Amino acid sequence: MFVVFIISTLAMLKTNKPMEPINSDLLQFLNELKKNNNREWFADRKSIFDIHNREAKAFFAGVEERLKETDDIESHKLMRIYRDVRFSKDKTPYKARFAGSFKRATEHLRGGYFLNIEPGNTMVGGGFYGPNPADLLRIRKEFEMDATEINEIISDKKFKEIFPKGLEGDGVKTAPKGFSKDSEAIVLIRKKQFYAMRSFTDNEVLSKTFVDEVIDTFVTLRPFFNYMSEVLTTNLNGESIITE
User: Fold this and answer.
1) Which residues of 168-179 are buried (b: 16+ CB within 10 A; e: fewer)?
2) DSSP state at residue 240
3) What is an example of a Pfam family matching this protein (predicted)?
4) Which of 6, 69, 199, 229 could tie 110 with a disulfide, CB 3.0–4.6 Å?
C-alpha cells in the first residue's frame, strides 16, 4: 500500500507548476561569504544578501507547500544566517548556508525534515537529532524487544539508494546502562541520534528537478518516521500514551 502511495504522490507532484530553481548567484554568494566571513565584508553586501535571503525563503516556502501534499506539516523554519558565537571557539559571525527544518503536525507525528543548501555540502533528510531521555529509552527498549521492523525499513532498496550511509547518528561506545552488549540490536541500541541524510552536488542543486528530488527524499523517510511515531506514542504493550 505504501508503494502505491509513493507512486500516486509523485505523479501528483509532477503536475504542479514548477518552482523557480536555486539561482547560481546564491551559491556564489555563499562561497564568497565562506571566504570572507567578517562583518565588514557582509555589511558592504547586505543588499545582495537580502535578495538571496528572499530567494531562499521563497524556496523553503515552496518546499513546504509541496511537502504538505505528502504529509501533515505544521510549519517550516529557515535558520538565521547570524551565528551565536558567545560559547563557540569559532568566532566567524555568519553561516555560509541556508538551512531549515519542516515540522510535522500534532503529537502523533514525530520526526523532522531538514534541508541544508550549502556549496559543496548540500544535504537533505531528517530524523531524530536529540531525543529527550524518555524518548531515547523508549526507542532503545523497542529495538531490544524487536528490531525486525526498523531493520526492514533501513534495509529497503529505495531507502539504501537514497541514503547510502544508512541510519546515522552519534552513539555510546558500549552498551547503554541497563542493556546487554550481546543484544542482537546492539548497533541500533547504542545510538543516541537517529537520522538519514542525502548529499547533493552543486550542479544537482541548481537543476530544475532539485525540488522534486528533495520531496522524493523526504517521502522515502516516511516509513521510518511512521514507525518511530508509533513507537514514541505507545508503550511497550502497544497502548497509546497520548492524552487527547
Assistant:
1) ebeeeeeebeeb
2) B
3) DUF2461
4) 229
